[in-house]
């Protein structure tokens, strides 16, 4: 049926490492499998039975992630205070919230989703030219599963990454098929993130520019995730459950659905809202566990904007001194962006999280 040796193997007989290498060397990702007519999920993507059997349930009730309306945020101090309180409350309780009426044009959001789709659905040869697992040295790269050789099971997902972890952006390194919309979208994202950082600073009792002046929004990466239709979605995931190690993540998703957030020990579906942006907070505000399921229909597109700080910066991040005291001592130690990201890429996605930086005496 196929030239892919890993597509016809059974869970008990296949040589996992060799099959991972065979998949990797094709450089066509999960979409390449689907285009090749795969009818079953290859074993390298099948989650271990013990993991599937321990899976938490999904809340069937109408519990929604908080939605915060920015429509009138600049009209009065009272309106700003209302939004600040809503953001802090959602960040502490959920670590997750959606923003509507954020002034980023709906047309641009739709164009970004379409640009991501166009990249992944172009000819394989164009994508193979930038296929790479060397995330740090390349501004733009295409790959499937950054933790392919470290995870228990590969995720049903391909990704195009574009990063400015050194603070520099070279438009010529972007694929022509999505260059213009990506640059426009990133420009809006940096401004939007700084607005969120100001509101978070105010909510934490800091000067409005406190978090923005840490320069964390100047080092970022953009992911364009592509989740093809899956023939056996119950056997795999689009993204394993994890907590982001970024300062902040802004997620744009299409209308297919599949994103879930762990809340009160159960998975809650994050239903798509047209024009909404999803914010994942971190630190003193809850660092939330979330994942993506896959569907038998598709593809699904999501575009996370990760705010990480400069990779090579000597700046050290840690607990905000204005928010700590003898009564409220630091829980985490200080670290650099380089240490944070190096740890991230050394582990399976479901093994990482901010707890790595907890002070030993408190862990």
UniProtKB/TrEMBL annotation:
Signal peptide: none annotated. Keywords: Iron, Metal-binding, Oxidoreductase. InterPro entries: DIOX_N, IPNS-like_FE2OG_OXY, IPNS-like_sf, Oxoglu/Fe-dep_dioxygenase_dom. GO terms for molecular function: dioxygenase activity; metal ion binding. It comes from the Eukaryota. Gene3D superfamilies: B-lactam Antibiotic, Isopenicillin N Synthase, Chain. PROSITE patterns: FE2OG_OXY. Belongs to the iron/ascorbate-dependent oxidoreductase family. PANTHER family: 1-AMINOCYCLOPROPANE-1-CARBOXYLATE OXIDASE HOMOLOG 1-LIKE, OXIDOREDUCTASE, 2OG-FE II OXYGENASE FAMILY PROTEIN. This is Fe2OG dioxygenase domain-containing protein. It comes from Chenopodium quinoa.
